[in-house]
Amino acid sequence: MLTLTEFALVLILLTRLCNPKEWKFPDDFKFGVATSAFQIEGGWDADGKGVSIWDVLGHNRSVLVKDGSNGDVACDSYNKWEEDVMMVKNLGVDCYRISLSWTRILPEGYGTKINPAGVDYYNKLINKLLENGIEPVITLYHWDLPQFFSSLGGWTNPVIVEHFANYARIAFKLFGDRIKTWITINEPRLICQMFKGLVGDVTPNFPLGVAEYLCAHNLLKAHAEAYHIYDKEFRLRQKGKISITLDITWSEPANASNPEDVRAAEQNVLFDFGIYANPILDFDYPRVVIDRVAERSKLENLPESRLPKFTLAEKMRIKGTYDFLGINHYITTYTRAVDDLPVNRPSIDIDAGGERFSDPSWEGCGAGWIKVVPWGLRRLLNWIKNTYRNPDIIITESGYADGSEVFEDDGRINYYRVYLNATLQAILEDGVNVKGYMAWSLMDNYEWIFGYTLKFGLYHVNFTDPNRTRTPKKSVQYFKDLTRTRRIN
Ligand code: NOJ
Question: Across-strand partners of 186?
Fold first, then answer.
């Protein structure tokens, strides 16, 4: 006798066998690859570019970078952009996600003194992509904050909101006639939590559990301003879409029949992702975040919650500022509830509670934090569908790292195969509105504090060669087959 689940599985299998043609990505689904300016461009001071916080970290505090390297040359895409476009074309993908370097366009970061050479660089790149039938998807901010703002406290200072809005308006004016998909900010959680004041995007002078929330608060307002500027001043003529990209770690209860673990797992997703997603896709911060931070602030004898409050007008201004939801996904963990959390060193992580761990049997890769757990992707897509009324989702990043030079990258091929399959299951079987999948990354590049030690690329880059020679890995052929057939091989 079959159980209900077994019966359902047999049914799915039979349907698939009878309709092999159906197990295919829908026609409007877009495949893409992604990179970001600082990680590939190099040309850190070329032709009038201003300095960013990552330039400064690479020059003055490279001890913080695993291989002591910097992004001065990176993949040299500032000079090799035409070759990059040909590599993207060779993959047969629909789009290429890049980011703009704020200080290449506005060397000072503020005001209206535009660097013509920077504008020229992006114009050439965008035009070349379009000539080759590739849609450029542009992220305005992928972590390379103009150094000037660092001395003001980075994202913890509310002045950043008007300066980001100014930069966004300039970018829409300069490039928006050709751009149909904009992303305001990449992975706010990493900006506010990950580098913990090391880089200058968050001031090191506040306690973490204060700085992280201030950063999130200003960042949400900055995103909303950019959205409204686009909506009011550009959308009608330029006819594009705009949103934000959030990273999402899936958190699975350690013991699904223990309500405490179930609560802790969801709480972690809400603290990591909901803190940004809720104000935009719903209204205000998640209730559990508001209540827990207030409660824990009380325990710390603070007169007020460490979580800043939005006014009603601000909540209304942030709500609905998305035309789709961009997500980056790399991590699944188990979470178990923890009772006694320390009260003397406030941080989002501790406020969220819950202890995360991964199953030792999960396959790993060069990046210790990435395990191959495709069902995590499927679950989180379903969770977003159910929590936020099934928005259109674009997976703006997903990828696998090798820790050394690997050309026969079967691990990566398998990763894409199973993650794309999980995406397809979410679309075809669960009705999640996933509209695109972009592989991180087009080529090996500067992986922030890991320098050049982690290799995420479909193309290998030789970083010891002044020419930064690119060579296709085996996964390039996998991607070509995928984009040609729109099926998972
Ligand atoms: C997400 C970030 O957006 C990207 O810059 C980074 O390289 C990848 N994660 C891999 O860690």
Answer: 245
CA–CA separation, 97 and 476 (whole Å): 17
30 residue type, one letter: K
21, part of any domain: no
SS3 category, 246: strand
Across 258-280, average pLDDT: 98
Give per-residue pLDDT as tens, 110-120. Answer: 999 999 999 99
User: To test the ligand 1 pocket, which listed residue (187, 191, 192, 201) has its Cβ within 8 A of the most ligand atoms?
Assistant: 187
What single letter denotes the amino acid at residue 232? K
Q: Rounded distance, CA 236 to CA 231, Å?
A: 8
Buried/exposed code over 462-486 (b: 16+ C-beta within 10 A; e: otherwise): ebeeeebebebbebbebbbebbeee
Sorting pLDDT into bands at 50, 70 and 90, what band is 197? confident
Residue 204 CA, ligand 1 centroid: distance in Å: 23
Compute, in angstroms, the gap from residue 31 CA to the centroid of ligand 1: 18
| Three-state SS at 367 | coil
Q: Which domain holds residue 46?
A: 4-14+29-485
Q: What is the pLDDT of residues 405-424, one digit of tens each?
A: 999 999 999 999 999 999 99
Query: What is the predicted pLDDT for the residue at 12?
Result: 54
The domain total for the chain is: 1
Is residue 24 situated within a structural domain? no
Name the pLDDT band for 16 (thresholds 50, 70, 90): low
Determine the pLDDT at residue 489.
78
User: What secondary structure does DSSP assign to 109-155, as a single string?
Assistant: SSSS---HHHHHHHHHHHHHHHHTT-EEEEEEESS--BHHHHTTTBT
Count the alpha carbons within 13 Å of 38 in the hemisphere toward its beta carbon: 25
The answer to whether residue 464 is domain-embedded is yes
Residue tagged active-site, from 187, 212, 225, 266 = 187
Strand-pair category, 325-328 with 241-247: parallel
* CA atoms within a 13 Å half-sphere pointing along the CA-CB vector of 239: 2
Distance CA 14, CA 33 (A): 33
Question: Residue 441, preceding bond cis, omega within 30 degrees?
Answer: yes
Q: What is the predicted pLDDT for the residue at 8?
A: 47
The CATH number that applies at residue 67 is 3.20.20.80
pLDDT digits (tens, 9 = 90+) for 278-337: 999 999 999 999 999 999 999 999 999 999 999 999 999 999 999 999 999 999 999 999
* SS3 state at 195: coil
Q: What 3-state class would DSSP assign to 83?
A: helix
The DSSP code sequence of 310-348 is --HHHHHHHTT--SSEEEE---EEEEE--S---SSS--H
300 catalytic residue (yes or no): no
User: Is 116 a member of any domain?
Assistant: yes
CB atoms within 10 A of CB 324: 20
